[in-house]
Amino acid sequence: MDHPTTVIAGLGLEVGVAVARHFFDAGHNVVVGDGDERRIRKAREDLPEKIEVVQAPVSEFTGLHNCFARAETMFGGLDHLILIPRIQPTDKLADLSLDQFRDDAGHGLHSLVMAIQSFARHVEALEQDVEARAQQRHQRGSVTVILSLASRMSQPGQFTATILQGAAETIVRASALELAKSNIRVNAIAALRPRAEKAEGATLTLRTPMGRTASADEIAAATRFLAEDDAAIITGETLVMDGGRGFLSSLMKG
């Protein structure tokens, strides 16, 4: 398809807008969905008018379906899904509300599985024609889940976030295996995201060899690469963007 269609579910603080812009600049038709009114308003201000911005609770089936329907109605197809799950606020095991944890865990994992399953079903429904299947490319679609570095390493005060982000990475791997026969790829990015700089302050440079977080534009560029035909053999993988942090055995000296 000359102009593939990409749906971005969730905006995050900065990353979603950067991802939308990168895909649009690469020639994609882009639909962005988020349930937060303030983030939607800012996205409409910051993004080109040709990008479809939909206020919808994308962690729910109805909201995500609305985004898929908009993509199919406006652009006649659906090729890529970018998921940016909400990062849970800081908490500690000792102070944890088990009822709240149950609700957060159930909703967060359910919404991720629902999104991947729904995307696969939409892509397969759009390719019912036998001739289209015979001429299909190496990939029929891709899903990329943008996670925080909590999916790979944790620190005190991120109990729920660590569990949900780590479980999300496991869902990515399991989904990749299930959907490989359909030529639908599922990958993840685990990034030291800009919000970490605010949380860690001056200690970030001591804990990260590169001395900084990944920028929203760097994450967006990596996300676009994982959706390209050139990456059609990559599935079930997590691209870690941590500035060398995972290899550091001690604090950096000033």
Task: Write a concise synopsis of the structure shown.
By secondary structure, the chain is α/β, with parallel strands linked by helices. The chain has helices spanning 15-25, 37-46, 61-75, 98-125, 130-134, 159-179, 194-200, 204-207, 216-227, and strands at 5-9, 29-34, 52-55, 80-83, 141-148, 184-191, 238-241.
Structure description:
- It is a single chain.
- Residues 129-136 have low confidence and may be disordered.
- The chain contains 9 helices and 7 strands.
- The chain has helices spanning 15-25, 37-46, 61-75, 98-125, 130-134, 159-179, 194-200, 204-207, 216-227, and strands at residues 5-9, 29-34, 52-55, 80-83, 141-148, 184-191, 238-241.
- Helix content is 44%, strand content 15%.
- Helix 1 (15-25) crosses helix 9 and helix 3 packs parallel to helix 4 (98-125).
- The chain has one domain: Rossmann fold, CATH 3.40.50.
- The longest helix is centred in the middle third of the chain and has 28 residues, at 98-125.
- The protein has a 7-stranded parallel sheet, sandwiched between helices.
List the keywords.
254 residues; alpha/beta; Rossmann fold; 7-stranded parallel β-sheet; 7 strands; 44% helix; globular
